[in-house]
Amino acid sequence: MAEHEHVRVAVIGSGFGGLGAAVRLRREGITDFVVLERADSVGGTWRDNSYPGCACDVPSHLYSFSFAPNPDWPRTFSGQEHIRAYLERVADVFGLRPHLRFDSEVKLMTWDAEQLRWEIETASGRLTADLVVSATGPLSDPKIPDIPGLDTFPGKVFHSARWDHDYDLKGKRVAMVGTGASAIQIVPAIQPRVGRLTLFQRTPPWVMPRMDRAISGAERWLHRQLPFTTQARRGLLWGIRELQVQAFTKHPGELGFVEQLAKRNMARAIKDPALRAKLTPDYRIGCKRILLSSEYYPALARPNVDVVASGLTEVRGSTLVAADGSETEADAIIFGTGFHVTDMPIAERVVGADGRTLAEVWKGGMEALRGASAAGFPNWMTIIGPNTGLGNSSMILMIESQLNYLADFIRQLDVLGGRVALDARPSAVGAWNRRVQERMKRTVWNTGGCTSWYLDGNGRNTTIWPGTTAEFRRATRRVDLMEYEVLRPPAAKAGGGTPQSGKRSAEAEAAL
């Protein structure tokens, strides 16, 4: 990277969000951009999570870009290696390699109010950019709980997203901490190899069967020869999930039938009443993410597996102590304890117009206009920002909606002309988030009786979108300049007032 390189757009991260943004920039005719990636290859969370059994819980044909369909997905639910390979192909097919800057972790981004640009310090050098697109993703920085005595543990310790493939688990006494989406894939994958597996479970998840199968050669041939069949398959998968949304957002009581299906799934594999009682959640299904596995419960029923229905609270040498007082000896501890979602570390490295970091501004809870723009951070947009997550469908749909918003954001800058920046008005950010939080009140994520990673430290749901993906797409179709302050360089301000966008669009008013 050149010492004083300047680009029109700097994209942070090369997962689905970052690569999608790069493709969209090229489709908009913009080639003056870089993609800053802290690792040495693309893939984001699908590069970092390489643990045994890692796979997606969204069907393959829906968990891919609409502009880059893949007729050759090998399974209905693809494994990590296939998704990572798909992202590598996207980088190649769309000519993104020249824009990629690997080993370039962003250390600091500071807004220059005089020059109306971002000053960016990375591990490989410094640069400036007119616009920053932050696509670091919420599942990028692992979270390991602060457990007394953990530093005294003589064995191996690692997080599921930082799997140590050099460590042989064969015959070892292994502790799995956590029961989220990663853990229910890891447990059945390592259970046959380990000597003893102890699962520390603070809260049992709801688990439904995983209807996975190999996609036949005939199906793949059909998708290659008749591309509309791939689109039809994707459309059907999307439509089914859109119809499910009301049960999560407006009528959580309708999920009772799904709970019964989940209990039957458990009963088929877990015959021991005591174990079944440990594994039965006491909250409404959907409050936490519904997990998919046909192997998790059978693995827990194996004789070399113990379930401790309590969290890990202390480590005394090689002895692990649970909250219920029980003790377990272990050679290795694997943490499947999630990520920094509502307190993303990147927020500590973004310094806005008033000198405060994004983390300081978001101390009371993450907020961003249409999930993209934070007040006080001009020409800065985030992909998979606050309240853009989903509980039942593909995040790629939300990413593509935000890419539409990004494209129109850049068009608006072009229309305004000259050196210009857009800063979300605090009133617009506040109004948007009040509507989101009002809708959130009746959702299963807020009323289901659980504590989940969807909620921040204040108990506020700042991660999930309380509507359909179609609603979000309408809400992010175009930028409404009434929701932004237009900034000019200090010398240019003397000439007149701030351009306005006229009447607020009907779509913007009706979005929520």
How does this model look, in words?
The protein has 512 residues and is an alpha/beta fold. It has two domains: 307 residues, 3-Layer(bba) Sandwich (FAD/NAD(P)-binding domain), CATH 3.50.50.60; 143 residues, FAD/NAD(P)-binding domain (3-Layer(bba) Sandwich). Helix content is 30%, strand content 17%. The strands form five sheets. Strands 1, 2, 3, 4, 5, 6, 17 and 18 form an eight-stranded mixed sheet that branches. Strands 7-16-8-9-12 form a five-stranded parallel sheet, with no helix packed on it. GO terms for molecular function: monooxygenase activity. Pfam families: FMO-like. It comes from Streptomyces pharetrae CZA14.
Question: Quick summary of this structure?
Answer:
With 512 residues, this protein is of the alpha/beta class.
Annotation field: number of helices: 15
| CATH homologous superfamily (4th level) name of the largest domain | FAD/NAD(P)-binding domain
Q: Quick one: CATH class of the largest domain? A: Alpha Beta
Q: What does the largest sheet look like? A: 8 strands, mixed
The pLDDT mean sits at: 94
Question: How many domains in all?
Answer: 2
CATH architectural category of the largest domain: 3-Layer(bba) Sandwich
C-alpha termini separation:
43 Å
List low-pLDDT spans. 495-511
Inertia-based shape: globular
Q: What fraction of the residues are assigned to beta strands by DSSP?
A: 15-25%
Oligomer: single chain
Radius of gyration: 24 Å
Secondary structure class reads alpha/beta
The CATH topology of the largest domain turns out to be: FAD/NAD(P)-binding domain
Into which percent range does the helicity of residues fall?
Answer: 25-40%
Number of E-type strands: 20
